[in-house]
């Protein structure tokens, strides 16, 4: 723990005492990770008492001073965190691994450090042995390393908050061409190990998804864009199975009962309907576009899936299997 000023220590002591329980100077020293001496903490407690803070000191069986804060004064101290609220902060941190090695990672850690400073004594004692930071792990493969894009991410966050116009130079991986054009950043999206930006293109009057790692240059402008367009997330994601758009069609898929436990209980698409046939197989119906992501997802289920409709999708899957088979001849 970094060295704290007296005012920082005193505020921290008040937050600890706001739990209502009696705390000795030894317990306080433990809460400060042993970085503050018992003598210093004793002086801080006396200084609080002399300044008019209603502290009560009592001798324990071990002849130590145990300090409490009068109940009528606790309402002036910020509301303490509950155990689950504290744990939720660490779960949130685990889910933000996408920002590792970027400047924003420091901001996340700073937030957790500040939360640690206002955790009530009983929550601290309850979670200390179990290590709250080890409660939850977000395990995923194929995540991008965004450390080279930290400045871009920070600029986009600022642009979203303050509605700054931007000029982006973007690389198209299919054409291999880089193009520059104005954008109005709307929000960041995390999907399947990647970070994306939803931006409004005023020239075309539509929203577009941009992969952060393909942004080669970002110029943050001083002028702000007018909020004269509404982003409807339900409409934006309506026909997507993943990130790509396509004209929606009625899709019906049959999954073998051997993998039923992998399909049931999950939300695959907002339009999904699931039923069980007489053989125990699952029938999944959705109204989605025939995007590359849908094709890839279907192919990933191997021989455990059977496309029932539409015919166009059946033909695509047959062709994909034939092309894959050629690679093994």
From TrEMBL:
Domain WYL: 152-219
WCX domain span: 248-325
InterPro entries xrefs: CBASS_pafABC_assoc_protein, WCX_dom, WH-like_DNA-bd_sf, WYL_dom
One Pfam family hit: WYL
Coiled coil: none
Listed name of the protein: WYL domain-containing protein
Species name: marine metagenome
Lineage, uppermost ranks: unclassified sequences, metagenomes, ecological metagenomes
């Amino acid at each position: 723990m970094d060295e704290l000023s007296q005012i920082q220590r005193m505020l921290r002591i008040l937050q600890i005492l706001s739990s209502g329980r009696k705390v000795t100077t030894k317990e306080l020293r433990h809460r400060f990770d042993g970085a503050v001496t018992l003598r210093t903490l004793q002086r801080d407690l006396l200084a609080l008492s002399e300044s008019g803070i209603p502290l009560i000191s009592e001798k324990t069986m071990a002849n130590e001073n145990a300090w409490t804060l009068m109940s009528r004064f606790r309402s002036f101290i910020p509301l303490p965190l509950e155990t689950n609220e504290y744990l939720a902060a660490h779960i949130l941190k685990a889910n933000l691994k996408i920002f590792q090695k970027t400047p924003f990672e420091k901001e996340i850690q700073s937030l957790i450090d500040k939360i640690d400073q206002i955790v009530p004594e009983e929550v601290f004692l309850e979670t200390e042995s179990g290590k709250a930071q080890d409660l939850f792990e977000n395990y995923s493969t194929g995540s991008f390393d965004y450390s080279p894009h930290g400045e871009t991410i920070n600029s986009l966050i600022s642009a979203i908050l303050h509605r700054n116009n931007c000029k982006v130079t973007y690389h198209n991986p299919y054409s291999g061409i880089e193009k520059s054009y104005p954008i109005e950043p709307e929000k960041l999206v995390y999907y399947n190990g990647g970070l994306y930006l939803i931006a409004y293109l005023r020239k075309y009057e539509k929203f577009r998804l941009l992969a952060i790692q393909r942004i080669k240059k970002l110029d943050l402008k001083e002028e702000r864009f007018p909020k004269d367009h509404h982003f409807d997330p339900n409409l934006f994601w309506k026909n997507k199975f993943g990130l790509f758009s396509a004209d929606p069609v009625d899709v019906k898929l049959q999954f073998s009962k051997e993998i039923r436990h992998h399909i049931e209980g999950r939300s695959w698409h907002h339009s999904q309907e699931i039923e069980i046939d007489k053989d125990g197989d699952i029938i999944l119906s959705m109204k989605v576009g025939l995007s590359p992501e849908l094709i890839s997802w279907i192919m990933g289920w191997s021989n455990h899936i059977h496309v029932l409709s539409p015919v166009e999708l059946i033909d695509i899957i047959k062709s994909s299997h034939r092309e894959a088979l050629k690679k093994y001849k």
